[in-house]
Amino acid sequence: MKTNRLGRSAIAVSEICMGTMTFGTGADEKTAFEILDRSFDAGIDFYDTAENYPVPPDAKYAGLTEEIVGRWMKTKSRDALIIATKVSGPSHGWIKAAVRDGKTALDRHNIIRAVEVSLKKLQTDYIDLYQTHWPDHDTPYLEILGALDDLVQAGKVRVLGSSNETCWGVTKASMVSEMHGLSRYETIQNNFSLNNRRFEDELAQACRQEQVSLIPYSPLAGGVLSGKYNDGALPEGARFTKYMSVGERQAAMARRFVNEASLASTARFMTIADEAGIAPVTLATAWSKQHDFVASTIVGATHPDQLADIFAAADLILEDDVMNAIDAVSRDIRYPMG
């Protein structure tokens, strides 16, 4: 599998990254191990988790995903794995973290506490990529990056990244790092898919200029691009089927992902995939990694049967006519996720 560097760093990763956010709830440990083993055998060396996983976040089982990943890591050579995890952002806004009694923030105290717990749960003495899970724009980037740089200097973290960051945040953080000689964000992990191309509006250019790599999450738009929600379907056990009944924040997220516009665009993408002779999941995954600002696309699975269509995208380059057909849908149905 082709590899790309993370930003300006020395770390090169496979073009596909296996995400783990459902491990512990959507997939039990035995299933998670099978998914991870098959991913490793397929050439994937990059694995992403977070202290707040699994989702939906709940204090009763927060951190379980890191524990599962940590136990699996013991079955492989540590040097063969690139492991990414995240520290939770502030809990006084739209999201309340399921760790530290919901008192999280991106100050030095929380960052240091978070990394020590993650290292224990992952059963490792270093993390390859340590990311801020969502931004804390009220805390000075000098404090955030200063604390993170200390972790790099101590050898507990190799490189840094952000997630769910804004264009202003990317450029501000890069400026602070340069001015103060601190380790920089090499990556940004944001939502990016056929149904959500907002990253291309401004962030893509900011990342090109700052040499920050996107590692997009949700390339299947939360599973919507597989077509499983089309024609009014609400599959039992599916994420957004659950989210519609577990709280207003989750219900709002479900409505953003599953709506008239997103299902209409998905139907057209499914037709394009069929005409190209590939599965919709393969189309969506291949399209995501086929951008110059993307280093590795984060996929996810709750069952090993879902992996074949993902892996089929590993060496696939979509032809110009396919890319043009995709762009036509995006012009006709603009911003289906809002």
Structure description:
39% of the residues lie in helices and 12% in strands. It is an alpha/beta fold and 338 residues long. It has one domain: TIM Barrel (Alpha-Beta Barrel). The strands form 2 sheets. An 8-stranded parallel β-sheet has the order 9-8-7-6-5-4-3-10. Strand 8, helix 6 and strand 9 form a beta-alpha-beta unit.
Précis, in short:
With 338 residues, the protein is an alpha/beta fold. It has helices at residues 29-41, 64-73, 108-122, 141-153, 167-180, 203-210, 239-243, 248-257, 260-276, 280-289, 307-311, 320-332; strands spanning 3-5, 12-14, 16-19, 46-48, 82-87, 127-132, 157-163, 185-189, 213-214, 297-299.
- CATH architecture grouping: Alpha-Beta Barrel
Low-pLDDT segments, ≥5 res: none
- The CATH superfamily turns out to be NADP-dependent oxidoreductase domain
Count of DSSP H/I helices: 12
Round the Cα radius of gyration to an integer and report it: 19 Å
Whole-number mean pLDDT? 97
Helical residues, percent: 25-40%
- Give the N-terminus to C-terminus distance in angstroms: 34 Å
Main structural class = alpha/beta
Beta strand %:
5-15%
**CATH fold naming:** TIM Barrel
